[in-house]
Amino acid sequence: MRARDDFLSIASHELRNPLNALQLQLTGILRAFQRSPDAVPLEDIHDRVAQSDVQVGRLARLLDNLLDVSRISAGSIALEREDVNLADLVEAVIDQFRPEATPGQITFNTGHPVIGRWDRLRVEQIVSNILSNAIKYGNDRPIVISLDDDHLTARLSVKDHGIGIAPEQHERLFTRFERGVSGARYGGFGLGLWITRQLVDAMGGAISVESQPGQGATFSIVLPLRGAEASAVEVLA
Question: pTM (2 decimals)?
């Protein structure tokens, strides 16, 4: 009961933050138009709408994570496999996150298309979760994303130069409701990496982390280019 109440308290707080920020931006636009509709600079409107879009994205990711907890636990997430160009998908995810990153912070290294048979939406979710963490904990320092394949598997790595993670915390990162840092400072449900591991496992892949405190972190994901036509996520103990 205590754990449930603590989680509900955290969830309410985390959902309220992007809602408050979104409301602030929209209220600012509305008041500007009420004062002088013809004098509102287009650039100011663009900036406020862009910031609102960032908050909507954060809210959507939080809600998706909450929904996926029950879906994965019930084994009810179906994988709809199709041919996916992972290089193009990663580029698209990076574009979505650029407003949250500092200019030039993210570098993507890939030499050629990497095409595999995966669930496009779930792979996008995996990449989004890892990149979101890199931005959150990266201290505005460079993030390097690398992608390659060996004709059997695709390997994606996301390296940041942020706060890092103590070795004894590495395995806990992939546990539900666990985080390697203080929730009071960085926020979040502690669900993103747990969900990511479940999805990677379901597609026959593997995820790992290399990190030391103060030296950043590198998350590596390996996915088979071709996998069995799985119908649902298998929840690991």
Answer: 0.71
